[in-house]
Amino acid sequence: MMLNTLPPAVAGPLLGQRILIVDDVEEDRILLTDFLLRQGCRLYVAKDGQDGYRKAQSVQPDLILMDIRMPVCDGIAACRLLKANPGTYAIPLIFLSAAASTEEKIAGLAAGAVDYVTKPFDFEEVRLRLCVHVKSNAQGRSQQEAGEPEWLQNGASTLDVVLFQATRRLLLEALDQTLGLNELAAAVGTNARRLNAAFKHCAGVTVFDFLREERMKEARRMLSETALEIGAIAHEVGYGSAANFSTAFRERFGMPPSQFRR
């Protein structure tokens, strides 16, 4: 849904910019739309992360303002999907949320947001943050055209690939942790069955077969390139004991990690 623009109060860098607002609180949507329409923006609205993800694909906004705590699909999960989709990964996203703890801010930025503004927000702060990131996005478009990531050059754009890439990033950033399949699926706004199907389609294996292989690859690298004790490496790649790690490594590479290091 696009809202008709009002005559801007002052011509400026936001004039004509397409902004997608994703928030389940009607009062906040109204306040933001009224303010940004007066800045000359072209506005679109969505009521949850899933709705926002769909609209971002079709609208291709210049910037997204998104809440975090929403039903159906929260802002963190939606952000991960947007950043894993070749059609939307370059769109700057600012979280505008009452979730103000340090942990939540870190999670939001780690998911791919360019900025984080806490509610209740100051309109002038919102305007300034938008101006900064709209300008940065415009400067980055030529760079994107000059050299996209390899997986984008391959033309991947299906939902399977989006789910795979978003989850792959989560897994690789936390090889020392073991998240349940349902927890991983919720983190990217889907369900366990759909997520496993995406991994089988893209990688030919289940989520946890993929994770096991990535852990072994990282363990092999650490054994070759670092002087860390084998027990420490086991912990870094998510094994509770050196013995369990050694068994898994031997099954994968045909020798225990101690022999591989020698």
UniProtKB/TrEMBL annotation:
PANTHER family given in the database record: REGULATOR OF RPOS, TWO-COMPONENT RESPONSE REGULATOR ORR33
InterPro entries membership: CheY-like_superfamily (IPR011006), Homeodomain-like_sf (IPR009057), HTH_AraC (IPR018060), HTH_AraC-typ_CS (IPR018062), Sig_transdc_resp-reg_receiver (IPR001789), Tscrpt_reg_AraC-type_HTH (IPR020449), WalR-like (IPR039420)
SUPFAM superfamilies noted in UniProt: CheY-like, Homeodomain-like
Lineage, top ranks: Bacteria, Pseudomonadati, Pseudomonadota, Betaproteobacteria, Burkholderiales
Keywords: DNA-binding, Phosphoprotein, Transcription, Transcription regulation, Two-component regulatory system
Occurrences of domain HTH araC/xylS-type (ranges): 165-262
Domain Response regulatory: 18-134
Keyword DNA-binding on entry: yes
Post-translational modification 4-aspartylphosphate, affected residues: 67
Protein name (Swiss-Prot/TrEMBL): Response regulator
Domain of life: Bacteria
